[in-house]
Design a protein that fits this description.
Length: about 270
C-alpha cells in the first residue's frame, strides 16, 4: 500500500516538514522506565491522589456534556429550514468532535502497559518512535491547523521493533486525530458565526410566523417552537466553545509531541 496521510482545510500557510527515523536526532528519545515496582506503585498512587484545579474539572465536565441537539419543527417552511440546516451543521461538528475524542482514546490504549495505565501524548509518542525503528515517518505542518502525516505501511511493517499492529495502528489513530482536530478547528468558527446571525434574526422570524397567519393554537405553538429553537441555538454556541477549546488543546499537544519526538528542526 502506498503512503497514507491525514489533513484538514485551512487558508493560512505556515509550511514546513520534518521526518523521523532512527538516525534523526531525538529530544529525549529514551523511554522512562520505573526503577522498581515500588517506584511504579508510587507514581500511580501520586497520579491518583492528584486532583486537577476546579477550572480543569469544570472543563472536563463540559466536554462530557456536549451532545447533539434537535430543533422543533416550525410550520413555516423558510423558518423551519433555517433551524434544521443549522442543527445539521452543528450535529455534524459534534460527530467530528466525538470522532476526535475516540481516536485520541484509541491511540493511548496502545501505550497503557508502558505508562502504568496513565498514558499522556508525549510519553506515547516517545514510545511510538522506538517502535517504528528505522521506518520513515514524515510530518508536514502546512497551515495553522493542518498536520499532514505520511508513512509507508510496508516500510513500517519491515522495520518496526514490535509487531506491525503495535506500530501501524497507533500511527493510523494519530493520522485520524490530526484530521478530525483540523476539521473541527476549521469549521467550528463558521458554524458559530452563522448561529449568532440566526439568534440575532429572532424578531424577523417571529414576524414571519405572524405573517403566515396560522389558525388558533398553530400560531401559538409555532412561536413557542421558535423560542425553544433559539434557546437550543444558544446552547449550541456554548457547546461549540467547549469543542473548539478541546480541539485546540489536542492539536497543540499533537503538534508539540510531533516536534519533540519526530524531529529537531521545527
Amino acid at each position: 500500500m502506498g503512503n497514507t496521510c491525514c489533513g484538514c482545510l485551512s487558508s493560512e500557510k505556515d509550511s514546513y516538514s520534518y521526518e523521523y527515523n532512527s538516525r534523526t536526532p531525538l529530544l529525549g528519545a529514551q523511554v522512562s522506565v520505573p526503577e522498581s515496582r515500588a517506584a511504579t506503585k508510587e507514581n500511580v498512587s501520586s497520579a491518583r491522589r492528584y486532583r486537577p484545579p476546579e477550572d480543569s474539572r469544570q472543563f472536563e465536565s463540559s466536554i462530557e456534556a456536549v451532545t447533539t441537539i434537535e430543533t422543533l419543527p416550525v410550520p413555516v417552511s423558510s423558518v423551519d429550514k433555517t433551524f434544521k440546516d443549522q442543527a445539521k451543521r452543528y450535529n455534524d461538528l459534534v460527530e467530528t468532535y466525538s470522532n476526535l475524542r475516540t481516536e485520541i482514546h484509541n491511540f493511548k490504549t496502545y501505550f497503557e502497559e508502558e505508562t502504568s495505565g496513565i498514558p499522556v501524548l508525549q510519553d506515547c509518542f516517545r514510545i511510538l518512535v522506538r517502535r517504528c525503528g528505522d521506518a520513515k515517518i514524515t510530518i508536514d505542518r502546512k497551515s495553522k491547523t493542518l498536520l499532514y502525516v505520511s508513512f509507508n505501511q510496508k516500510d513500517v511493517t519491515e522495520k518496526c521493533t514490535v509487531t506491525p499492529e503495535q506500530a501501524l495502528k497507533p500511527l493510523e489513530h494519530y493520522q485520524n486525530a490530526c484530521k478530525y482536530a483540523g476539521d473541527v478547528l476549521h469549521h467550528a468558527p463558521h458554524i458559530k458565526d452563522s448561529i449568532s446571525i440566526i439568534i440575532n434574526d429572532e424578531k424577523a422570524m417571529r414576524r414571519e410566523i405572524t405573517k403566515a397567519d396560522l389558525p388558533g393554537e398553530k400560531g401559538v405553538d409555532a412561536m413557542k417552537a421558535v423560542m425553544s429553537n433559539i434557546t437550543n441555538l444558544k446552547q449550541m454556541k456554548v457547546n461549540i466553545d467547549t469543542i473548539q477549546k478541546y480541539a485546540d488543546n489536542t492539536f497543540k499537544e499533537l503538534l508539540e509531541a510531533s516536534r519533540n519526538f519526530f524531529a529537531s528542526n521545527c
